[in-house]
Design goal:
With 117 residues, the chain is of the alpha+beta class. The longest helix is centred in the C-terminal third of the chain and has 19 residues. Helix content is 27%, strand content 37%. Helix 1 crosses helix 2. The strands form two sheets. Strands 1, 4, 5, 6 and 7 form a five-stranded mixed beta sheet that branches. A two-stranded antiparallel ribbon has the order 2-3. The mean pLDDT is 85.
Amino acid sequence: MATSLTPLALARLVAASASECDGVAAVAPGPSGVAATHGPGGRVPGVILRPATAEGATVTVHIVAEAVSSRPDLAAAVRTAVTSALDEAVPASAPWTVDVHVADLVTPDLDRPHPLP
């Protein structure tokens, strides 16, 4: 990634952009608990950045969804928000491929997330 932002800063941007979407309860470390970007000064659970190729750069974000009518629509909204934020922050790395994984679901009748089937 040709950018002055560190991978950790980019991962924080991705997590913040995803978290701001309606229907996202949280960004989570994925089903195995190991999805994260690591760097000097910390780590960002739930976000994985992959090195840029000739086709662009790839990021994966794992989310906990609130009870929404359409998880595909929620994933599309997260994808759009994350892509917009990254395109603005590091236009030289575009195009971005953003993979969204809905790792957990929070429903109004439960007080905690539970794994999707």
